Amino acid sequence: MTRVGVLALQGDVREHAAMVASLGADVVSVRRVSELESLDALVIPGGESTTMDKLLRAFDLREPLLARLADGLPVLGSCAGMIMLARDLVDGIEGQQTLGAIPMTVRRNAFGRQVDSSEVELVWELDGSQMHGTFIRAPWVESHDGDVEVLATATGPDGQRHPVAVRRGRAIATAFHPEISSDTRVHELLLGLVD
Ligand code: GLN
Predict the structure, then answer these.
(1) 3-state SS track over 112-136
(2) pLDDT tens, position by position, 16-72
(3) d(Cα 5, Cα 49) in Å, to the nearest integer?
(4) 16 lines ligand 1 (CB under 6 A)
């Protein structure tokens, strides 16, 4: 059976775990290095990227996680998880580190600050269909390298369209929270990346 880890240091772990389980995979809560080893895929949930970054380092998980990502472990990061997967940040805090799995610059809190959340209709570019996204203090992708595929775009508070879901190799990132909807397309895409 496919084993999908959910990084469980902080954030909306439970919702991702429930969605992964509903798709028939085994779910592992990941807090230790040993729990990283047997995974077929990993989810980095939403939450607070600055805290998640500090906890990754405090739990000595940062280096082993970087190694697994470099090795091609399929990964999905949502919201704070998207921030964690970025190479560069706009509006990061002093000393904030990311994992750099996707060559993109992500703007933190682009869709609003602190408690702001919004429901946004977005375009799922893979087939041109509509998708409903819940954005909570969400980032967007400010810029990216040419090999990053844009999976979804949405109109921001600035009236412009921005990438809000991307994929590069086996890494997927969404600015919105696919785990708190009944739409399983994003998680299915992750499971489809497992060998
Ligand atoms: N703004 C948060 C951060 O910078 C992300 C918010 C979220 O994950 N819902 O980490």
Answers:
(1) CCCCCEEEEEEEECCCCEEEEEEEE
(2) 999 999 999 999 999 999 999 999 999 999 999 999 999 999 999 999 999 999 999
(3) 18
(4) no
Q: Where are the domains of the chain?
A: 3-191
What pLDDT digit, counting tens, does each position of 108-139 carry? Answer: 999 876 557 788 899 999 999 999 999 999 99
Give the tokens for residue 173: 């990132």
Burial 172-189 (b: 16+ CB within 10 A, else e): bbbbbbbbbbeeebbbeb
Neighbours of 118 (CB within 10 A): 15
* pTM: predicted TM-score of the whole model, two decimal places: 0.96
Residue 79 falls in the annotated catalytic set? yes
The fold adopted by the segment(s) 3-191 is: Rossmann fold (3.40.50)
Question: What three-state secondary structure class fits 2?
Answer: coil
Active-site option among 16, 162, 179, 187: 179
| 125 contacts 80 by C-beta, under 8 angstroms | no
Other Cβ atoms less than 10 A from the Cβ of 23: the count is 13
Distance in Å, CA 1 to ligand 1 centroid: 31
